[in-house]
């Protein structure tokens, strides 16, 4: 499932190509992907200009000049591609939004969605999300207050969207590795130094993920060489049996609360 760095990468690349452009046509091949009847969706989106593309947690928000918004969540296996009629991925498209000759394709949204919402509806839908870990206002002091007396396992706490927005399976493992903490460690067992390290490495790992274009293995457009570069730079995720980049011991794969987890038993404590 795409996490904060992947969606931030989408936000940047799509924003550069689509902001200010007017929707000329909408095609919906899977009605369950949207939340209103197809004709209502088309009437609300066609002819409207994309004012901005922003990110909240694992969502993208396409704001239209009508004041309405398109809220996107890719879930498992979802992706987007921008191309022309002759430049398309050979995959089933659930929704295609055309901007003249440019087409934005939403692919693999079997569990994901693209919902048309008013500003009030959008606010309500996103109201239960936790703080954005890369928000300038999310200081060390704010983090310390957030985790004060917090209980639960580190791995499962990091992926809770009500705790922090945007972190999932991959980056939670990478954060634990960078902070030299076992993902099974209890939150209330962290000392002050470990809490500071956790805060620092949440930000460092997410920023690193963004700079490397996340882990999505399909480019956003033809010639896109950034998207997916993180796949080649994972510390521990999906590297079972490979040598740890820090101590050279073998990376372990286990399950915590039904979630797969990768870590180094030797240098994470």
Write down how many β-strands occur, each being a DSSP E stretch of 2 or more residues. Answer: 10
Main beta sheet, described? 4 strands, antiparallel
> Which CATH top level class of the largest domain fits?
Mainly Alpha
CATH-derived architecture of the largest domain: Orthogonal Bundle
Helix-strand string: HEHEEEEEEEHHHHHEE
Structural class: alpha+beta
Strand content: 15-25%
Number of helices: 7
The figure for the number of domains is: 2
Return the CATH topology of the largest domain. Answer: Helicase, Ruva Protein, domain 3
The residue-averaged pLDDT reads 97
Shape by Cα distribution: globular
Low confidence ranges: none
Radius of gyration: 20 Å
| Order of neighbouring strands in the sheet with most strands | 1-6-7-5
The N- and C-terminal alpha carbons lie at a distance of 27 Å
* Secondary structure: helix percent: 25-40%
Describe, in plain words, how this protein is organized in 3D:
The protein is of the alpha+beta class. The protein folds into 2 domains: about 120 residues, N-terminal domain of MutM-like DNA repair proteins (Alpha-Beta Barrel); about 120 residues, Helicase, Ruva Protein, domain 3. Helix content is about 25%, strand content about 20%. The protein has 7 helices and 10 strands. A 4-stranded antiparallel β-sheet has the order 1-6-7-5, covered by helices on one side. The chain has a 4-stranded antiparallel β-sheet with strand order 2-3-4-8. Strands 9-10 form a two-stranded antiparallel ribbon. A hairpin with a 2-residue loop joins strand 6 and strand 7. Helix 1 packs parallel to helix 7. Belongs to the FPG family. Its cofactor is Zn(2+). This is Formamidopyrimidine-DNA glycosylase. Keywords: DNA damage, DNA repair, DNA-binding, Glycosidase, Hydrolase, Lyase, Metal-binding, Multifunctional enzyme, Zinc, Zinc-finger. InterPro entries: FPG_cat (IPR012319), FPG_N (IPR035937), H2TH_FPG (IPR015886), Ribosomal_uS13-like_H2TH (IPR010979), Znf_DNA_glyclase/AP_lyase (IPR000214), Znf_FPG/IleRS (IPR010663).
């Amino acid at each position: 499932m795409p996490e904060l760095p992947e969606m931030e990468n989408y936000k940047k690349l799509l924003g550069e190509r689509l902001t200010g452009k007017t929707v000329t046509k909408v095609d919906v091949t899977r009605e369950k992907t949207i939340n209103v009847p197809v004709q209502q969706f088309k009437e609300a989106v066609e002819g409207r200009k994309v004012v901005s593309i922003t990110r909240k947690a694992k969502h993208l928000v396409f704001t239209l000049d009508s004041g309405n918004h398109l809220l996107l969540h890719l879930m498992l296996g979802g992706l987007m591609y921008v191309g022309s009629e002759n430049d398309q991925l050979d995959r089933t498209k659930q929704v295609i939004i055309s901007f003249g000759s440019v087409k934005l394709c939403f692919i693999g949204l079997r569990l994901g969605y693209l919902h048309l919402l008013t500003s009030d509806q959008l606010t309500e839908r996103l109201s239960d999300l936790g703080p954005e870990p890369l928000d300038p206002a999310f200081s060390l002091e704010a983090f310390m207050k957030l985790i004060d007396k917090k209980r639960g396992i580190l791995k499962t706490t990091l992926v809770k969207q009500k705790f922090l927005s945007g972190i999932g399976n991959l980056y939670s493992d990478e954060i634990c590795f960078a902070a030299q903490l076992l993902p099974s460690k209890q939150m209330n067992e962290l000392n002050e130094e470990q809490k500071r390290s956790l805060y620092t490495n949440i930000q460092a790992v997410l920023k690193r993920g963004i700079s490397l274009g996340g882990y999505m293995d399909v480019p956003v457009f033809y010639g896109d060489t950034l998207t997916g570069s993180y796949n080649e730079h994972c510390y521990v995720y999906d590297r079972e049996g490979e040598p740890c980049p820090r101590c050279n011991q073998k990376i372990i794969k286990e399950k915590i609360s039904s979630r797969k987890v990768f870590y180094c038993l030797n240098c994470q404590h």
